Amino acid sequence: MAYIVALHLARQPGRRRAVLIVLVLLPFWTSVLVKCFAFTIILGRDGIINSTLGWIFNTKIELPLLFNRIGLLIGMTNFLVPLIVLPVLASLLAIDGAIYRAASIMGARPARIFWTVTVPMSLPGVFAGLLSAFVLALGAFVVPALLGSSQDQMLSSLVDFYNRQVLDWPKAAAISVMLFCMAVGSAAPLALWRRHKV
Questions:
Q1: Domain CATH number, residue 90
Q2: What does pTM read for this prediction?
Q3: Which residues contact 119 (CB under 8 A, 6 or more apart)?
Q4: Whether the Cβ atoms of residue 75 and residue 39 lie closer than 8 Å to each other
Q5: Cβ–Cβ < 8 Å for 133, 186
Q6: pLDDT tens across 117-157, in order?
Q7: Closest C-alpha to 160, from 146, 141, 143
């Protein structure tokens, strides 16, 4: 999703791109807590989506969109997609337009140009965005607590559980160290890859 949005933004004129980037950044202007409560209004059994579907089909509809994995995925997607859009967009804008013209002159069709030029040259931004999203998802606490179920909790929720409810501080510390090692371990391959490319 983020790559499609970034690709669309990269193909827009400068002024229109600036306006659209503001829309992409709009979720950052609101607290995660406020957005989660807004999703409870949108996704709830009597929320906007179920009410709209019930009005369209003229029947009572109660789709389970909240306090389960669907609600968690929707909330995490809203939280993380903008973080991937920006580095991918930066990589796409850094590609020299002469490369596209050269590929077109050599007879490459748009689909081939996309897969052989655009995608490989935008990979640094893709990796940077995925790394940022992965690290933030590891430590996500508010979204899983408010939109997910007890079966869809993140490791940070376990840290809170063992720290405040069970008072098993050694286990909470062990999970925290594991979270830190996972974050560092995910960043190390990207750093090595960048050093190899340089």
A1: 1.10.3720.10
A2: 0.81
A3: none
A4: yes
A5: no
A6: 999 999 989 988 988 888 888 888 888 888 888 787 788 88
A7: 141
